Structure formats: C-alpha cells, structure tokens
Amino acid sequence: MATLWLTYAWSDNKNSDVDYIAQELVRSGINVKLDRWNINAGKRLWEQIGNFIQNPEECDGWVLYATQNSLGSESCKEEFAYAIDRALYNRGNSFPVIGLFPTTVDKELIPAGIKTRLYVSTADPNWKERIKSSLEGRAPNINKSSLEPYLLEIHNVSTGGDHRFAIEVRPRAGTWSPFLVAIPNQEKENVSPHISFGACGRVPTGVALFNTSSGLSEDEKYWCMTASNEASPTQSYYILCKTLPRELIFGIDHGQPQYTVVFNK
Question: What's the CA gap between 158 and 145, in Å, rounded?
Fold first, then answer.
C-alpha cells in the first residue's frame, strides 16, 4: 500500500475537513500520514517534515493541502517552495509532490514548484485516483462517460418574440436528412415549436428550409415537423420554443437513427 505524507495548515482542519480528506484517501487504498503545520510556531516546514520526506520507507509521495490559510502569504509560499526544492533534491524529480486544492485551482496560490507538477482539485470527481496513480507511478484509471452520437444544447434566446429557448441538435458524425423532430401533441400550444437551421453553435436569425412539413403522427400522440436540409457535425437544427417540451424525438424522418430525450422540467 502506497504511503503519502499530507501536510496542511492547522487552521484548515478546525472543522475536520482535512480529516475527511485523509479518510477518503485511506478508503481508496492509501496509507496517510498527517502533518499539521503551524507557521507561527517559528519552526521551518522542512525542519518539521524533512526526516520523513527523505526516507523512502516513510512515504511514497508528499501532498500539500493548499488553501488561502496555507498559501495565502508570501512567507507561506516561500516555506513550501523551499520544502519542495529540498524534497526533489533528496528524492529526485520522479518523487510525487502533489498540490491538493479543496476547490477550483487559484493559480495565484500555486507555488512555482507545483505549477510544473501535479495539482488536483477535490472538485474533480477523480481526485483520489489521480493522487493514488501518481504515488504508484502509473497512469490514472479514469472511466470516461460514454458520449451520445448526437449533440443537444439548449440556448436562451431573446429575439423579441415569444420563443425563449432554442434546442440545438446535430449528429456528431454522419448526416441526418430528411430531418424529423417531434414533441407530445398535447404540449404543442404551450411549446409553440418552430424549426430553423444553421451553423452549429449559433442560433440563426433566419434561414431557408427545404421541403418542410408538419402534422400529427399516425397515432396522433406527437406533433411532427420535417425538413430536407442536411444536418451534419457542422450544421444544426434549432427547435425554437416558448417553453421546453417534456419529450423530444429527433433524427431521420422515417428512418434511423432517431433519438428520444426526456427533459426534467
């Protein structure tokens, strides 16, 4: 089991926040040694941790819990910079020195020695794996979420009319033509859907649509709109709405693929 040395400012653990960090790292399979640092005690940081950092039997890496309390002054930054320099001098450049931030990273707080190495935010859901993999000298094992074969993005619009939203849809690869979009027919009056077409990422102000049609589905449950403009990774359809529908069906008219998205309103 890899062992890390976790250094933190004493004021950062008044509400046991650092204890929680240590608890989560232990649960992920890391042996954690905590070191509370009080800069006002008059003892240099390296004097306090040097014996442990230099000894490979004591730790496999060093984590600095970096906050305004620990790095908010120049004296604190200087202490950390000196300690980082000494750690790398004694253990080599491959020795993991990691900055751990409780929120998004404020680059002004990052000591120079950390900026060129690994720093992690607990806002990243994979922060524990990033630390563990660094200690174990391997790439992080992070499962990327599967992407849908389409892009769907909701834009707020202010065209001066009744439509407040534009739902952009397009394929990530391939094309859709002829295009179909449908919403529950019972929502037609409230949603007041209209379709438009244009470059991806930019709601068009006006465009010519070819071979358009609209009407009820065969089972009369959906209001359907079609057009022959070709949707592609660079050209999108936009469904203009007064309010978002509960359900949206889109894709190739009388063909595949077709997709169904349910909105949480």
Answer: 33
